[in-house]
Amino acid sequence: MAESYKPMDAFDSMTESTFIIKPKTKTKTNTNTNSKSDLAADGGYLTLLQGQEPVESMQLRKRLFAQLWQPLEEELFTIEKQVNNIGITEVCDFVDSSYGEIERREQGQVARPFAEVSAAVTFAGINTGDHGKLFQSLQDQLLERGHHVALLESQYCNTLPNLQRSLLEQMFNSIYADTDAGPSAFGGTKTVTYDLGLLQLWWANAACSGKKAVVVLQDFEGFAPTVVDDFIRIVGGYCDAVPIVLVLGLATSYECVHQSLTKASISMLNVERFNLQRSKQCIDTAIHRLFVQGRAPLCFGAEAYKSLLDQFLLYSFSIAGFVKKLKYAAMDFFYAQPLSVLASMLAPNAAVSACPVRLNSDQVELIRMQRSVQRFLERRATENGGNAYVRQALSDDDFFQDTVLLQMARALVMYRRSYCLGIDAIVEIQSMAPEAMQKPVRTLHYYGVGQQFDDCTHWKTLLAVVRRMKTSEMTLLLQKLCRLVDGAADVDWDLVADGTHIHELIQGAAELLANPDGSAIPDVLDNSEPKKRTRTRTEMEHRPFLLFDKGASDAQLNALEKCCEAVEAMLRACLISYHDVALNEVFYYRHS
Predict the structure, then answer these.
(1) What is the 3-state secondary structure (H, E, C) of 196-263?
(2) What is the distance between the alpha carbons of residues 242 and 237, in angstroms, rounded to a whole number?
(3) Residue 271, SS3 per DSSP
(4) Is 218 exposed, middle or buried (0-12, 13-18, 19+ CB in 10 A)?
(5) Using one digit for the tens of pLDDT, what is the confidence trace for 41-50?
(6) Nearest of 496, 492, 524, 493 to residue 508 by alpha carbon
């Protein structure tokens, strides 16, 4: 055993029996870079359908995203600016009208024996990510009105000297922008850079009569309470000579001011409250323009739309976050949906044009596989000569793309126009209902995309309101509906609502109500004889307006009943589910 043992020397190794097999290096072939690799490297667009998608379709998807998203983003920002300008204008008007005592003293009138600091407490909401843009818009409008503005943030004003130094720097920059005076105009005296006495000196020499010095504390909760408390007391000593207006931006509640400041400081403020948080109004306007009016080619399905609303209402409450989610959905649509090229067929002016690129057999077959397309062809098969039409649509790709696809796209556009008419009609009916029954547009759109007409409780509630209207109320409602229908004169009702012509329906109901004895009942309504006035319980449930118009004749009550049927037929025809429309799998986003 001792002989078999061999000690290790310096030349032995534990790994002398191991080896490494290196993979074969692939020789790089000098191939010319094609457009596919260029698009994959620039923008992340790849060919879909397992690489069978034409390069032209991939390029079209990239162009469509660039062409369609930028106008939508600009429109969203415009909507946000318009809605926010309502509250911003109120704050600017308050700044203009503040410190009337100084102006009266300049005119020789008697001023009050004490001076108060004008303060605007603005509630900007919990969407702190949007506060920067909001207060920047406020600063821009104040500057346009000739005031001098200092926008202060808590991260740069942790102490009182830093707060005053930042205030003076911004004020002096604002004053020097309007005058030729600089620091040298006041001599070479060495002064403390955080003394508000400098502001009083410069204010008197800069001829700022009629202007205000506005100090905006953007995130009031972030400032130290002692710093703000001392600053208010210092400002109170100078506001008799310099009209300083404080704007406190809150993200939580108005009680934060009372909790942070002492009673002595609060007593020095002349406070008015303003609401700058109008996120709900902004979202309602955006949803109505993009989804209800159909300005965006991509709409949201029920699940995705509910997720979008929940993220906004329950978590962020941020307009910027809402825009980002819309952009992510648009990117997912144009990056990963091979049929997104069909968005080129839908124009903002409700026109339909042919797809600019020819679809290959794989793309056409993918369209045929959609369940809504199959239902569309099944309905056409029941018409006269429909079997030949369906047979050619399933066998001839050119006929499908040139004829069938255009018909389905036009039907989709007409459905969106009729859906917008239905939602607008619901808004008009709500305006005549009690406040407890009124819902915002975002909720109405959720009902429209998430439920069938017969399953929606809110639609039934509003129809009950219509059935309880008096003759004068019904006349006013029909006038409003006639104006809405006249605005949708371009809708081809043969493509939607099972051929029910809404324009003739509403016009006929209005004429019948105006002249119940002489006008003919529209053909779309029940042409039955007027019912005798009864008082049974069953009759009260179906004709509750008998309780109100006790002096009306049987012909007038019959006209009211026919008008109720006309309004219900209109809503039922316009508010059908998008699941019944061809190509809804493509243009109604489903991923949440």
Answers:
(1) CHHHHHHHHHCCCCCCCEEEEECCHHHCCHHHHHHHHHHHHHHCCCCCEEEEEEECCCCHHHHHHCCH
(2) 10
(3) strand
(4) buried
(5) 556 788 888 8
(6) 524
User: Among the residues of 515-553, which ranges form H helices?
Assistant: 537-542
Neighbours of 311 (CB within 10 A): 16
Determine the Cα angle at 89 with ends 86 and 94, to 5°. Answer: 130
Give residue 223's pLDDT.
Answer: 92
Closest CA to 99 of 85, 78, 120, 73: 120
Which of 406, 399, 416, 303 minimizes the C-alpha distance to 349? Answer: 416
Angle between helices 386-395 and 371-381 (to 10 degrees): 150
- In angstroms, what CA-CA distances link 324 with 42, 69, 76, 312? 21, 11, 11, 11
**The token pair that represents 366 in the structure block:** 């993918």
Q: What element of type H or E holds 273?
A: strand 269-275
Token pair of 580 as six digits: 């019944």
DSSP letter (8 states) at residue 293 = S
Axis crossing angle, helix 319-336 with helix 55-97, rounded to the nearest 10:
170
User: Token digits for 113?
Assistant: 């024996």
Determine contact, residues 509/502, Cβ cutoff 8 Å. no
DSSP structural state of residue 521: P
- Whole-number Å distance between alpha carbons of 440 and 438: 7
What's the CA gap between 584 and 590, in Å, rounded? 10
Tokens of 114: 């004490």
483-531: pLDDT as tens digits: 999 988 888 888 876 667 888 889 888 888 888 775 555 555 555 555 5
| Calpha distance 419→413 (Å, rounded) | 10
* C-alpha span between 73 and 87 (Å, rounded): 22
Cβ–Cβ contacts within 10 Å for residue 450, how many? 15
Describe the strand order of the beta sheet including 244-250 as a list of residue ranges.
148-152, 213-217, 244-250, 117-123, 269-275
Q: Which two tokens stand for residue 45?
A: 């667009």
Residue 129 has pLDDT above 50, yes or no: yes
